[in-house]
Structures are given as structure tokens and as C-alpha cells.
Design a protein that fits this description.
Structural class: alpha+beta
CATH architecture of the largest domain: 3-Layer(bba) Sandwich
Largest sheet: 5 strands, antiparallel
Number of helices: 8
Oligomer: single chain
Distance between the termini: 33 Å
CATH class of the largest domain: Alpha Beta
Strand content: 15-25%
Helix content: 25-40%
Mean pLDDT: 84
Shape: globular
């Protein structure tokens, strides 16, 4: 993808070429295009901790359809929730050091780390016994990202990744899209210059979403550390008003 003479030229792997006045990046947490655009968050000095995420869809007839479970383990946490089709979504995030310690084997990491939590063990044993293939995403980082790179307008996780514990990543992506579409119309109709479009989108995105990402990252720090998790849960139990405020910080407002 190349930007020149006020337009983008995109060439696909199959050799097809497309041209457009604007381009939006909505490719998720990490993609090859991040490297091709030399995005600043990939610089080694800004990496910080990296995580790996794993997702299963399990068939568990006895899992309640109105329950969400959260389970702690060393340097990570796992959530279970019902999804359509009678399935249960089992997703967890772990510091990548856990995976490396077990030879980059997801199954061995689960046995050596996650299954040390006796409440989580039965779910993962069922997944392994059933031969359910997980979806694995690596190189996840929660470092701050830019909303515009090389004139590409970023959306969703490409613009900023909220910790999965806080949730609402899809909602944030739709919020940003709703925010951007009016600005894009103004740009395409000549009411905004490209510089104004990029500046206004960046300011509006930060005003709407940056606090939610920071709050989610702060909460994320408490999980994967049993003592801190216990302390945080006890504090929230005794202060229901604080729990409500925390939820508001990470969930935002309706639109």
C-alpha cells in the first residue's frame, strides 16, 4: 500500500490494484501491515510485556447460559461465557513467558500453568480430550498506539487494544467507526482537508476511548497475580459504588 499524490494505491497478493482517496486500517491487534507501515508501537524500546491469547469453543451441556466465569492463573486469566449454538467460549490471555517456558506448546503450558487452578482444570482437560483446536494470537501488546499512521486511519484494535478483562473491544471499534464516518463525509465533500481530518479524528478518538483503554489496562494489572486479585475483589465487594464506577470507565456511553 502506497500513498502518493493524495491517493492510496493498494496492490493485493494476487496482483489486483485498487485506488482510493482514503484508507482505514481495521486489521486487529497485530498484522503484517503494522510492520510495513513502520508503526511506532512496534519499536523494541516501546514493547514492554507481550501476551498470547488462546480461544476455544467447547460443547458443555451443563454450563449455565446466564453465567460468565473468570479464573486466575500465574501471569494470566481465563474467561468462560455461553455463545450461540449451545457452545461455551473459553478464552485466556497469558504472559508470553509462560508459553516460552513450555517450548511454545499451548497444551504443555495449559498443563503446567493454567491447570494449577483446580477450578479451571476441568474445562481445559475437556478441550484437550476432545481434540478441540484453539485459535491462538501471539505478540499482543497493550502499549499506546497511534490513530493515524502514514495517512491510514486506524479503527478497532489497530487503533488501540483494550485488555480483554475489560471487554467491549467490538463496541469500541463500532464507536470509532461511528465517530469517523461523519468526518470522512466532510473530507470527501471538501469541507475538511486531509490534515484536518486526521487531527480531528485523533482528538475525538482520544476523548472518547483513551480513558477506557487506560482503565482496562489498570484492571488488567490486578489479574494473574493472586494476592492483588484477592485484594481488588475484596475492595470491590465492600464498595459497590466503586464497582459501578469501574464498569462505567471501561464500558463508556451508549451512542
Amino acid at each position: 500500500m502506497v500513498f502518493a499524490d493524495e491517493q492510496f494505491t493498494l496492490t493485493t497478493a494476487g496482483g489486483d490494484t485498487y485506488r482510493a482517496r482514503t484508507a482505514c486500517g481495521a486489521w486487529g491487534k497485530h498484522a503484517n501491515l503494522d510492520s510495513k507501515l513502520s508503526r511506532p508501537f512496534l519499536e523494541p524500546s516501546r514493547q514492554g510485556r507481550q501476551f498470547v491469547a488462546v480461544k476455544y469453543h467447547l460443547r458443555m451441556d451443563d454450563f449455565p447460559n446466564d453465567l460468565v466465569e473468570m479464573h486466575n492463573f500465574s501471569d494470566g486469566y481465563c474467561g468462560l461465557s455461553p455463545v450461540p449454538g449451545g457452545l461455551t467460549n473459553c478464552s485466556y490471555i497469558s504472559d508470553v513467558r509462560n508459553l516460552r517456558a513450555y517450548g511454545n506448546s499451548v497444551a504443555e503450558m495449559e498443563r503446567g500453568v493454567l491447570m494449577q487452578n483446580p477450578l479451571l482444570r476441568p474445562y481445559l482437560q475437556q478441550a484437550q480430550h476432545a481434540g478441540t483446536a484453539p485459535i491462538v494470537i501471539s505478540q499482543i501488546t497493550f502499549r499506546e498506539r497511534s490513530t493515524v499512521d502514514a495517512h491510514v486511519l486506524m479503527l478497532g484494535d489497530a487503533a488501540g487494544t483494550i485488555a480483554p478483562l475489560a471487554g467491549n473491544g467490538m463496541s469500541m471499534g463500532m464507536s470509532a467507526s461511528f465517530l469517523l464516518h461523519g468526518l470522512l463525509l466532510d473530507f470527501l465533500d471538501g469541507r475538511l482537508s486531509r490534515a484536518e481530518l486526521e487531527q480531528q479524528y485523533t482528538r475525538a478518538w482520544r476523548s472518547l476511548l483513551s480513558l477506557r483503554i487506560r482503565a482496562g489496562h489498570l484492571i488488567h494489572q490486578f489479574f494473574g497475580r493472586p494476592a492483588l486479585t484477592t485484594l481488588a475483589i475484596q475492595a470491590l465487594k465492600g464498595l459497590p459504588g466503586l464497582t459501578t464506577q469501574v464498569l462505567k470507565l471501561t464500558h463508556g456511553k451508549s451512542y
